[in-house]
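Lecture notes, unit on binding sites. The following record was shown on slide 14. It pairs a sequence with guanosine-5',3'-tetraphosphate.
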Amino acid sequence: MDIQWYPGHMTKTRRMMEENISLVDIVCELVDARLPLSSKNPDIDKLAANKKRIIILNKSDLADPSKTKLWQEYFKEKGFYVITADSKKGEGIKEFYPACRLLMKEKIERLKARGRIMVPSRVMIAGIPNVGKSTLINKILGRNMTKVGDKPGVTRSKQWVKIKKDLELLDTPGILWPKFDDKEAGLRLAFTGAVNDDILDMPELAAEFISRIIKLYPGCLEKRYSVSEEGTPNDILLNIGKNRGFLTKGGEVDPLRTSAVLFDEFRGGRLGRITLEAPPKM
Ligand code: G4P
């Protein structure tokens, strides 16, 4: 199963990112803590060369805490300032301002030595659709300013927001295109809902999900749905539907409804805290 991104979007969002990055000191990239590499934009390292960098491992409430620790180390080693966050609850947000000041320390000292009184940090929040940018911005601002939508690709008008006297945030998040040249990354993104479900064959996607989850977290489906994890992924999917009583009028298991519920529960954290990928060995 191949997951497609939209090339039209990519050209437009890339141009916007290039323009916006030139305006800021710090690029703060959100990734999904359940799949930090697949949800990380492949080109931002080039686009944001010469900028200070923060990585936010967002949705950490849904991710496996032991794996999140490994990811924190991985990104730290790569030179990022790493923050682990649950933007929905606001956890990790208080680290944002001190991180920005720390990253700006040299520039502040340099400019103050030349007589500048105020050196504000200008920051852009960026990330792929649905990773939680608007939610995070709302929490940083402490009020509901940007609209939080559930579909990828919603753009908003640009504006600077003063958060503190020395911290300004570009209100429009940078929308990055995800890594779709890698089939596995595309699938993981689809599992988490980063791809519009309307364009996907959900039962097929569910079978792909099941085949991976029984290896990564054995016993997880058995515990939640009282199904055996033996047999083909499709058999397991049908057994989940059977146990939940998702039957059509003809008495057959309804694979569409079953896969919708399976993804709903995974995305809502009801299968447990699951991380879909481990950091590459360094
Ligand atoms: P975007 O701007 O990057 O496109 O993402 P947005 O903030 O719209 O967030 C996408 C979805 O992710 C929202 O859910 C939001 O609540 C959820 N979300 C954001 N950060 C976190 C987090 O740290 N943990 C969890 N568990 N969820 C997070 P939604 O279903 O579209 O909206 P809602 O029903 O939650 O309001």
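Take-home: Residues 180 and 241 are 30 Å apart (CA to CA).
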